[in-house]
């Protein structure tokens, strides 16, 4: 997992912003133009484009320009980095709580 830390850091930073999470959620329904997406958020287009660049730089979305229209699409595979990290953390904590439960239900002095 350590070899993915730079990539994971970038994805987590990108997802830390509610606007960017909103873009990801909307793109989960399918590709949309930047203009359509920007219209749903209370900010200027240049400010919205900064969010698009962060998402694209970190591989969460891809954009394609046809004429004057830039279309964004979700790259769901990139979200697997977060999913894998969370699964690993969940496994670590489940192992710890299982050991604690075992220690509490079967203390060492009772095992003798």
Automatic annotation (TrEMBL):
InterPro entries: ArsR-like_HTH (IPR011991), HTH_ArsR_DNA-bd_dom (IPR001845), WH-like_DNA-bd_sf (IPR036388), WH_DNA-bd_sf (IPR036390). CDD domains: HTH_ARSR. Pfam families: HTH_20 (PF12840). PROSITE patterns: HTH_ARSR_2 (PS50987). Residues 1-94 form the HTH arsR-type domain. It comes from the Bacteria. One of its GO terms (molecular function) is DNA-binding transcription factor activity. PANTHER family: SLL0088 PROTEIN (PTHR38600:SF2), TRANSCRIPTIONAL REGULATORY PROTEIN (PTHR38600). This is Helix-turn-helix transcriptional regulator.
């Amino acid at each position: 997992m350590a070899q993915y830390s730079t990539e994971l850091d970038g994805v987590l930073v990108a997802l830390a912003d509610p606007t960017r999470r909103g873009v990801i959620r909307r793109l989960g329904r399918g590709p949309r133009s930047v203009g359509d997406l920007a219209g749903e958020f209370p900010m200027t287009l240049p400010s919205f484009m900064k969010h698009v660049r962060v998402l694209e730089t970190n591989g969460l979305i891809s954009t394609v320009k046809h004429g004057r229209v830039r279309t964004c699409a979700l790259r769901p595979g990139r979200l697997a980095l977060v999913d894998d990290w969370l699964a690993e953390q969940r496994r670590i904590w489940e192992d710890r709580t299982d050991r604690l439960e075992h220690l509490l239900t079967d203390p060492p002095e009772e095992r003798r």
